[in-house]
Specification:
Layout (H helix, E strand, L loop, with lengths): L1 H24 L3 H26 L4 H28 L12 H14 L1
Helix pairs in contact: 1-2, 2-3
Length: 113
């Protein structure tokens, strides 16, 4: 159990590091949020499971925290990105497709009608 816990704690730290690297390397807010959300979600889950292997009595509480993170991280990331998009934050020039443009233009024209 101790070796598995150590491996999971190291894996969690690795995903945190990758998330930090994604924040630095990605070209715009949309890519950065995606990289950070995925990496920190996995990093937190691995870290909590690693801690749970060290303290098995904490596992029920840690499981609740993991479920909460799996529900809230994607929702919060999506909300932040939607706010950035609606406030006019531009994507990088490398972004080829803007699937939301037509949707929000239609939503805006429906609201003005």
């Amino acid at each position: 159990m101790n070796i598995a816990g150590i491996i999971l704690l190291i894996a969690g730290g690795f995903f945190y590091a990758i998330g930090g690297l994604g924040l630095v390397r990605m070209p715009d807010i949309y890519n950065r949020a995606q990289a950070a959300t995925k990496a920190t979600t996995l990093g937190t889950i691995f870290t909590l499971i690693g801690v749970g292997l060290y303290q098995p009595t904490w596992f029920p509480k840690l499981a609740v925290i993991i479920i909460f993170i799996l529900i809230t991280n994607p929702i919060s990331s999506s909300t932040l990105i939607r706010s950035a998009y609606k406030s006019g934050v531009k994507a990088t020039d490398k972004t080829g497709v803007d699937e939301l443009k037509d949707y929000y233009e239609k939503e805006e024209s429906d609201a003005n009608s």
